[in-house]
Amino acid sequence: MPYPAGAERCNPAAMTVTLLAALVPIALLIGLGAALRRLGFLAEGFWPQAERLAYYVLLPSLLLDSLATARLADVPVGALALVLVFSTLAVAGLTLAARPRLGFGGPAFTSVFQGGIRFNNYVGVSAAAGLYGAQGVALAAVANAAIVPTVNVLCVLVFARFGTGGRPSALGLARQIALNPLVLGSLGGIALQASGLGLPPGLEPMLRALGQASLPLGLLCVGAALDFGSARSWIRPVAVASLIKFGLMPTATILACLALGLKGPAAVTALLFQTLPTASSSYILSRQLGGDAPLMAGITATQTVIAGVALPLVLAIVLALAGLG
């Protein structure tokens, strides 16, 4: 499909600057959360309540608002969505198949799994907008619509199987997925987008404000959960999760792009989103559903730092080899 004026090939230098500009505030917020916790600036009881607020109210508001109000004109919705869903499912399947060989316990595996397939929406939207302007925002909206529900359903299933909450029955699992606030927020936003109804004028600014609050609060909670005394035990799971995220996931995405003929800004956006570091919601989900939350915080913080080098490097190499930019 042809792209409108301004959809030029991606400039590697500009891409690197844009990505770093999106990543630096995230790293600083994580560091601030760690400092606030160590200094005892806030009562210990604040952090669990902040995590609960982010999980049940702020993050669902972010997903609902962003998906319901996305502008999708001149975007190859079908091909982009298929590339993202297929690559996510392929990597999730390979990660699950490799679990017996990895040797991680159930809760630790949930963190590795999330570190491999979840992504940071904030960095993705910021970087796509910086690279392609309004068209980038639309492409990012399609990416969110395609993989946010997919990733959340997969993660809920993995927590049900490997988390500390025990294995629910089939009915209990269906209920757990159907009532998950992140899944509900995603599906609600998609339904409003598909129906053309959008959000009522008074509700939209409220949801947007709540969603914007989810990003800094979630990252502060990630920083507060960092336990540097356990950092040595993170090395192997962090390495595995990062190899999946920055190696396996972009490889699967480029193969899907080639198979489905996706090129131009849509292909760049697909690769960008599938190579993003994992999000603060990974930690929130881990805390709420019985995963290894301290390990998840370590993966989140480490991947944010690694992404400063890995993101532009992976995108530049893959785009040069495949010629999809």
Please describe the structure with a list of short key phrases separated by commas or semicolons.
325 residues, mainly alpha, Na+/H+ antiporter like fold, 12 helices
List the helices and strands and how they pair.
Layout: H1 12-39, H2 46-68, H3 77-102, H4 106-117, H5 121-162, H6 170-178, H7 181-195, H8 203-225, H9 231-260, H10 264-274, H11 280-289, H12 293-322
Helix pairs in contact: 1-5, 1-8, 1-12, 2-7, 2-8, 2-11, 3-4, 3-5, 3-9, 3-10, 4-5, 4-9, 4-12, 5-7, 5-10, 8-11, 9-10, 9-12, 11-12
Can you walk through the features of this model?
The protein has 325 residues and is mainly alpha-helical. The protein has one domain: Na+/H+ antiporter like fold. Helices cover 80% and strands 0% of the residues. It has twelve helices and no strands. Helix 2 packs across helix 8. The longest helix has 42 residues, at 121-162. The chain starts with 11 loop residues before the first helix and ends with a helix. Residues 1-8 have low confidence and may be disordered. Keywords: Cell membrane, Membrane, Transmembrane, Transmembrane helix, Transport. The chain crosses the membrane at residues 12-32, 79-98, 119-140, 146-165, 177-197, 209-226, 238-261, 305-324.
Can you describe this structure in just a few lines?
The chain has 325 residues and is mostly helical.
CATH topology, which one? Na+/H+ antiporter like fold
For the residues shown, what is the average pLDDT? 83
Total helical elements: 12
Which structural class matches the secondary elements?
Answer: mainly alpha
Separation of the first and last Cα atoms: 14 Å
Give the uncertain stretches in residue-range form: 1-8
Oligomer: single chain
Order of helices and strands: HHHHHHHHHHHH
Based on Cα principal axes, name the global outline: globular
Architecture per CATH nomenclature, i.e. the level-2 architecture:
Up-down Bundle
Strand content: under 5%
Give the number of domains: 1
Biggest beta sheet summary: none
- The top level CATH class name: Mainly Alpha
Helical fraction: over 70%
| Number of beta-strand segments | 0
User: How many whole angstroms does the radius of gyration measure?
Assistant: 19 Å
InterPro entries: Mem_transp_PIN-like (IPR004776), Na+/solute_symporter_sf (IPR038770)
Main location: membrane
Transmembrane segments: 12-32, 79-98, 119-140, 146-165, 177-197, 209-226, 238-261, 305-324
Membrane topology: Multi-pass membrane protein
